[in-house]
Amino acid sequence: MNQFNIFCCRLMCRFFAFVFSTGLVCGPHLDAAGELTWVQAAAAENGMISAWYRCALPGGLLPADEVRLELASDVDCSVYVNGLRLLRFEQMQVDGGTVQGRVFDIRPLLREGRNLLAIELQGKREQAAVGVGLEVIRDGGRRVSASSFKQAPAAPPVGWQQTDFNDRDWKAVEAGTALPAGLSAVKIPQTSAVVSMQNAPRDSLPLMLQDGDHVCIVGATFVERAQLSEHLETALAGTLGSRKVTFRNLGWSADTVWSESRGIFDAPSVGYLRMVEHIRAEEPTVVLVCMGQNEALTPGLSSDAYSTQLMQLVDELTASGMPVILVSPHELMDALPPVPSPSRFNPRIRVFSEATGSVAQSRQLAFVDLFTGFVSSTTMVNAKLNMLQGTQIATDALADNGMHLTSRGYLCAGLVLRERLLGVPAVNAEIEVNLSSKAVRGQGLEIADVRFDDEAGVVSFRAREASLSPLPVRLVVRGGRITAAADESVWTVKPLSGAAGEGYVLDSTGQYEALREEITKKNELYFHRWRPQNITYLFGFRKHEQGNNAADIARFDPFIRESEERIAELQVPEWAELQLKFAR
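The chain above was modelled as a monomer; its predicted structure follows.
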């Protein structure tokens, strides 16, 4: 072999070494640079395009520095990756046959294993198409194709854009690289958009909830059982006034940061995937994550293992732009004999509570310590209620077996959480009526239209609380005493238990209870929407038997929205008309 041939062989070897090292060759998924894979949809008889697609992304995307998802469409397009919405019915600009596409770096959303792209097309035209391209940046660049598209036979039920959705009845569709009719070119930006919900950070306390916020509460038994009485959410909603904030309770009893309970008939890893994608689908502006108690009660599980998994969950949520607030597990109470007292586990729960705080600190997140002084704080609130309401409910009635809170326990815990999360103290509003100086002053509420009628012995005024609360309003009278509330009064009056003659209580909790009742109704509706009793038949591996009924799940949504409209009205404190008879 002459020197020229040797030189050519060496040159070819170096060329192929370069190609394989940079990933320009990737087996069966090689595309020409800049080439998109297209799927097309035809209009129905009414001339409308309605099409839904799912595509399992090719394997081997990770590790990567960047994964560019290129998109182009000539009709309104919604796009999801692993449950997170990137586009919402966006109409891309088409000028002279050239469509202006979009590009996203989806690397933060990808995981080892299965990854899913979901697309919805809507519009009025005869034919529509969507093009998809993937470019993996890893010490260079390579293009891979997203070609295994499946199309829904009809409008799919809720959850169709999530990875674990059973799409067995969806049909495979043909995809190609040729530009669809009507398009001559595609222009893709060079700079990738950041995949993020672009929410304001919530990294400090007290939390300031804003108009339009959507709060997801994620946790285990403590969170799920709160729906039975719903003092927890009501205590938070009662502070909002006219700000419209929606809440979603995503609690699952016995759950952990590994989501074993949510796996149902699948592996825990699938349950974890469901949890993350369910949170993403809600598109929250705030996520409260309350984990750690079940992990602390698991023999042999170290707090380091818990911290590592919690950090993974936090990283997956914050990568999507979701502000996360970590809430520690709460302290357990004593139980009456012969029930073994669960408070013996508190030293270990404290370790996991501190681990939660450490994760929050390492990720620069806000942290609510619900463990420290939880029992003493709830006991204090209970004692205050006993005094104000004239009842005597023992502390051991706050929790069944010392572990699971009762309705009374959640009432007290709701005020404790409200104080530690929102900074609203667990104190009752107070009205002071001074019969000598003819003055009425309020603390924690507004007072208006004060009138004294000495001849009739009646003082009348209007009062409005700053926040709705299960704590009644305390009434203090100077220079005389109140004999009764006139029939026209909205709030009833009774002497304050254990106080001198000047202490009274105004029962102002009617609006709070109405709000709580509506929130309980809303949460029951939402629970049946995302966790129907026959979930395996509707969405799971037995979907082929009753899966056609899954479309009915979306019918819960209008009822939930109507309930939330009523909640927004009920959470605004109303003016109360009061007429009190007095004697000096």
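Confidence is low (pLDDT under 50) at residues 3-33.
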